[in-house]
Amino acid sequence: MLYIILAIIGGYFAFRYLSILYAFREITKDIREIQKDLTQNQILHLPIPNRDLEKVLCSFNYTLEGIRKERQNYEKREKGFQKQIENISHDLRTPLTVILGYLKLIKKTDKELNMDKELAEALEIIEHKAETMKILVAQFYDFSRLNAGDFGLTLNNVDISRTLKESLMGNYQILERSHLAIEVNIPEHPIWVMAEDSALVRIFLNLLQNAGRYADSFLRISMKEDDENVLISFINDTNMLSEDDIPHLFNRFYMQDSSRNQGGTGLGLTVAKLLAEEMGGILEVSIVDKESLNSEKYKFTICFKLCIKVIKK
């Protein structure tokens, strides 16, 4: 009789142990699923009746709900902030455009500029500062729209080699003002990618502005393709950055202290990377020729999947 009682007691505790072990395994599995995506309204369920475990799960679910609410509030505040930036940037664009228009008109029509060198130089400075402000406002506007998910890209087959050539021709004055030695190697034949032409133009413009602002002596631009991808590289030298800056160059508002007097917001590269990723591309940066005794050489590489492989004759 004693053996039967002991067997029953042993069986009961064995069952309890195995039940609790099973419950912990199921709960662990559920926690891993929840960790993958905290935005889903998942909660932990108790697979077996157990008062102590139920109290633990209730506390966990309560904490989880608090985290979700805080995350939702943060996202709501962030979206509202981005919308405010977008609205302010949009409001600033119109007066800046008017100012630049009047400056160009004055330069064309005012005969005194031909005689007054000091006045002509002052107008040049004003125009340059206004152009810089226009670029900064455009970067804020693009960044806020990308973060708010309002950019609205429409992807089509685009000849990226042609877009790059046109961007270089249209913005050559940026590099000309910086007195850089320019090397360009772009294939003559079309290279097709799935992208939006205006977004590609913005990426190239931001990289050109970055080189114009920070490059010391040269900029090399090249485009190559393999069986699947097209690679576009912008290589320039600079003394303003170090290898420690590399992981942060695409962070929003990141600017190395020695480069702050060059102007800018630290958003140009961030916007370029976000646009590339929105179109399924990649934008990366690396240091090349590290053993050079002179300034570091930075290589920005853009990669897109090819749509059509051109058979060269």
Automatic annotation (TrEMBL):
| Membrane-related topology note | Multi-pass membrane protein
Q: Where are the transmembrane segments?
A: 6-24
What Pfam families would the database entry show? Answer: HATPase_c (PF02518), HisKA (PF00512)
Q: GO CC: one term?
A: plasma membrane
For the protein in the UniProt heading, the enzyme class is transferase
Top-level taxon of origin: Bacteria
- Catalytic activity, as annotated: ATP + protein L-histidine = ADP + protein N-phospho-L-histidine
Keywords for this protein: ATP-binding, Cell membrane, Kinase, Membrane, Nucleotide-binding, Phosphoprotein, Transferase, Transmembrane, Transmembrane helix, Two-component regulatory system
Protein name, per record: histidine kinase
Q: Which organism is it from?
A: Clostridium estertheticum subsp. estertheticum
